[in-house]
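[step 3/7] inverse_fold.run input=structure_tokens len=163
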């Protein structure tokens, strides 16, 4: 492993935290609410919040901080580092919203923070699973599936990462 890769993995280690879930969540591990806030990883500031919310609420929380939901469009390796860290440090069941979505009656996925369309996917097993074009679909992930998951943006309450 190169020094740069090790540094990134160490930085990612500092990035993710979990608190007790509320409402309808994919998984509830009952961890405490004390672990949310800003972290600086290799010169990049992130805001981590595992207090579970609907995807649009997560977007608003990020925007209130002059940030946006995490995106993996610039470097695919960023996703690999993220899930590797989550899995390694026991967060394999924790779900996080991303900045990717597919609007109602559309077949096009975009990274909402930039408006960039994309056609490269890292779907997890049995994904994508939402086959109803009348549903606004948002992307989330966890490290156990090691891939992306599509979900109704209004159905689940998940944690989120702002960048």
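[step 3/7] decode complete -> sequence:
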């Amino acid at each position: 492993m190169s020094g740069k890769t090790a540094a990134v993995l160490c930085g990612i280690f500092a990035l993710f935290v979990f608190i007790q879930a509320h409402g309808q969540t994919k998984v509830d591990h009952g961890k405490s609410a004390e672990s949310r806030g800003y972290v600086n990883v290799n010169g990049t500031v992130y805001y981590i919040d595992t207090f579970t919310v609907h995807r649009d609420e997560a977007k608003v929380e990020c925007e209130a901080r002059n940030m946006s939901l995490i995106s993996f469009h610039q470097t695919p390796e960023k996703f690999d580092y993220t899930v590797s860290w989550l899995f390694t440090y026991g967060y394999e069941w924790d779900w996080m919203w991303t900045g990717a979505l597919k609007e109602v009656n559309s077949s096009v996925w975009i990274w909402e923070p930039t408006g960039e369309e994309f056609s490269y996917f890292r779907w997890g097993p049995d994904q994508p699973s939402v086959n109803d074009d009348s549903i606004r679909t948002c992307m989330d992930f966890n490290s156990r599936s090691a891939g992306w998951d599509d979900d109704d943006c209004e159905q689940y309450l998940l944690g989120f990462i702002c960048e």
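[step 4/7] annotate
The beta strands are 37-41, 44-53, 96-102, 109-111, 116-118, 137-142, 147-152, 158-162.
The longest strand covers residues 44-53.
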